[in-house]
Amino acid sequence: MEKNDGVTIIVFSGDMDKVMAAFNIAIGAAAAGKETNMFFTFWGIKAIQKGKLTGKGLFGRMMGLLNRGGINRIGPSRFNFGGIGRWMFKQMMKSHNITPLEELRQTAIDLGVKLLPCEMSMQVMEIDVDDLIDEVEKTCGVATMLEKAFHSKATLFI
Questions:
Q1: What does the pLDDT look like over 104-137, one tens digit per residue?
Q2: Distance in angstroms (rounded) separating the CA atoms of residues 133 and 46
Q3: Would you give the distance in Å from CA 60 to the centre of its chain?
Q4: Domain locations in the chain?
């Protein structure tokens, strides 16, 4: 099997610092002209959600409330302090002229990075396609993600 020189990034984490790293790597790869795919699964889906409440059943609604998506609701993996950490990190990033997550995501989109939502994770967490930002590709499963990964020179799990 011949590989292209692309990159596949599996975004499993919904933590601010990890999502930021994933988008930075994707932007770097895309800016270098590499085919770049980001596969968002489980908590990582938060980065491509619009931010509205999700879920239909009791557990799905509870999950949607407790794990509300949207890139601006993502907190750091450490020192979140009930949401204060998210605010603090945003202030620190702003004071050091670090690009906010929402702008990083848009830059990735503008550079042609493909955002692939995991269909199984969406089913389990009761997230509909309408709950995702418009720029995402069609939902896909692990077979599609693996096909992308098998053809990539680099595959990262974040």
A1: 999 999 999 999 999 999 999 999 999 999 999 9
A2: 10
A3: 20
A4: 7-157
